[in-house]
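Exam prep: given the inputs below (a chain plus FHN), describe the expected output before reading on.
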Amino acid sequence: MRYILSLIISFFSLTLVSQSNTSDRAKWFVDQRFGMFIHWGLYSSAEGVWKGENLRNNNQYAEWIQYRNRISDDQYIKLIDKFNWEKIDPEKWVLLAKEAGMKYITLTAKHHDGFALWNSKASEFNIYENSKKRRDIVKELADACKKHGIKLGLYYSHWIDWNDKRSWDHTNEIYGLDPDLYDDYWQEKVIPQMTELLTNYGEISIIWFDMWIHHSKTIVTKEQLFQLKKLIRKLQPKCLINSRLGLSIEEDSDVDFRTLGDNQLGKEKLEYPWQTPATIANSWGFNANEYRWKSTTSILKALIGNVSLNGNLMLNIGPRYDGSLRYESLLRLNEIGDWLKVNGSSIYGAGAYDLNSDIHDWGKITYKNEDKHKIYLHVINWPIDNNLFVTGIKSKPVKIYSLSDKSREPLSFIHKDVFTKIDLPNNPVDKYVSVFVIEYDEKPLVVKGLVAKNFERGYSLNLQNYHMLKNNTRINKKTKYGTIPENINLSSEEVINWKIFIDEPGKYLFDTSYSNQSDKDIGDIVVFVEDKQVIKGNFKPTGKTVGEPLQDWHIKNFKSHRIGEVEFKNPGIYDISIHLRSRKKNIISWSWMWIKLDEN
Ligand code: FHN
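Solution:
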């Protein structure tokens, strides 16, 4: 009997703005999806090198040079003399952000070095006081953002301030710091400076804090954080606050969005707003020694992947001391902007679809309910035979077309039950990521939990995409740099099942991969389709293999074996289960099963 009845069919009606835990304040944020981060300050003049010595840390975070290379305050401030004031023009950053399709900007108003980029009365350690040019970069940027309709966010390092000796510097982990002294810093620098920023520069849309650990692990108190939050709510009620304030969203639902780790991309769909801060290479501040540049495709992939899980991406630039950008950054921003000009409707105002975003090997899906319900297919791996398979959507498409095709010429497709096969053009329609739109009249229905047919016309049934693992055997992660695949060790018996949709009836070949470290058959593999036993085989000895040549690590050999074939007479959803039995404990490790139509 087919499993159709037992599948959960959800009536999927979410639009982006119904990300359920989004406050009214944050609606623009989840709508805009893509922002610019700017790391610029005294460190930009050092360019990641101090007195001929490169930065003392492999992470290449050039904005940390004062701390890393142990630079004294009086020498550090001299970096301001290098600034090329004639060329520094924050409006250019705003125009660049616009060109790149970024909708908001966050500037490091004060980074960990404690240096304020505005005319601060609360601390002399600021850009206005220390140069004869009397420039207020926060003001210039705020004016330019206003002029060009871009929302402004300000990064403020509240926790760490290397310049203020009452504040936190990681050296305090050794020598300690008096909490009362820290509170003096808080009351006399943090609160007054935040008041200035929230009072003198018009509308501030985000205050972006950067305490990447929870407050309980350091000197900052919950009371201090609440004081700060209260101040922001009072002075700018619409301003968003990120979780690096030091309070998690779970602990305080009044925090507006979660900031993931640096360059940490989303893994799961979340209902509250979240964001990844990301670099184009490694460093945030300008670093002359930068060479590992991400490709435009990988940055787009990060943006699309996050949006497909309801997240944002804030991509960083680290301008030089004359405000300019390196060619590598400019090139990528321009390319991303060009892509968004054509494909932006799959990003702005779009969000997660109710299918696990990892099921299709060709790319990611985003969703939007505008005039019509639209599913956006982002094809990153172009299928060589130009057939695109979409698994898990029950509703019949009304129309499918390429987003880059202005005439919206319909593409032909076949839709069967929960499976849509699309005839793509003969070549990718975009250099980086080609986007296709499926339109539905009604809210598209989803069938969750199916393993999608992949571009080889097969189904990879593994320990990530199963429907049920009966005895909950512990899943061993990939080890040895991924040389040993994800697996389970059999102590006696395990039953695993998956659901697949067969669109092409016929004979399917079944292969499975395992390691058996005994020299005998000591267990069986039995495959059931629906409730009927269809294959029975034994675990054969697999021996060992060399993990890495000449490095003397010999590992269990996970070998793929053909275990049989099964005729599927009709299209439909099938329940496939595998019963694994071992007569000895922890000798057999099982990894995955592969099912593929026999095309001979
Ligand atoms: O230490 C900072 C780093 O310099 C940079 O500003 C990043 C941006 O997310 N935040 C901290 C590390 O996570």
